Amino acid sequence: MTEQPDRSQPAATPQQRGAVDLSALANSASAPESGASGGSTWVTRIASEAELQQVLQLGAQVPVLIHLAAPSNPASAQIDQALVPAVDARQGRLVLAQADTEANPALLQIFGVPAGPVVVAVVGGQAIPLLNQPAPAEQISAVLDEVQKIAVQNGLSGTVAPFAAGPAEESNEPALPPLHAQAETALGERDYEGALAAYQQALKENPGDDLAKNGISRVQLIQRTQAMDPQAVRAHAAENPEDVQAQIDVADLDLLGGHVEDAFARLVRFIASHRDESREPARAHLVDLYAVVGENDPRVAASRRQLAMALF
């Protein structure tokens, strides 16, 4: 474990001293292709801020570990020897991104870290320092257990697909349709208008394209929240509990930051307590947030049941 005691407690809450708010960075789509080989893996390599943003999007579902590596330092490779198999053993309940900070020092600045190697966990939009030196496999496993406990407290209890699949899985994995691939590329380049146009064209060509609908909702969420000041938005909502748009804005921020159940619950509560014209915008927006998360997510199913009770 790290020798910096005030920044290295894995069991601390995301609001602990040393946490870095990364909510604004979680503004892209799917994760980049992995550099790993051989079998399914939930470990990927990143080389830019854009790729970091792509991985952080997964923080809406699972904890994201970032190894701010220094390849010239043997400690980085030693950390990975224990960390990589521990991550893959959890079968998508968390993911790991390996960042070469010697090739791109700007990645260190994002986390306020002077030098690698350092491993941080991003949970609910907050970065929690974990370790900066090699540790035994059993100790790393215990650290990951604590990260998952924090994740559950933040409503993150799902799983994600691997970055790279084994041979049997690859043979069954269809390639992205051209317009979807175009949209994902645009997202990686922060060309949100281009991504939205590609998804909208895909939906125009196939009105039953649920993935395109999901993509549109994701891009629109990113666009809505880009210029928001989170503190101001939350303060306004607290002072104006009857303002439907204020509650919608906070729900958007919650969802982007990985607080999926909080986002859903806020709008369900508003709908349950309002019988006027403000109810329908809240309901329609909640349904759009369901599309962002995905209809197969158990949190969506649970919230739909709560919404039905709130409406009748």
TrEMBL record:
<dbReference type="InterPro" id="IPR011990">
    <property type="entry name" value="TPR-like_helical_dom_sf"/>
</dbReference>
<feature type="region of interest" description="Disordered">
    <location>
        <begin position="1"/>
        <end position="40"/>
    </location>
</feature>
<dbReference type="Pfam" id="PF14561">
    <property type="entry name" value="TPR_20"/>
</dbReference>
<dbReference type="InterPro" id="IPR036249">
    <property type="entry name" value="Thioredoxin-like_sf"/>
</dbReference>
<protein>
    <submittedName>
        <fullName>Co-chaperone YbbN</fullName>
    </submittedName>
</protein>
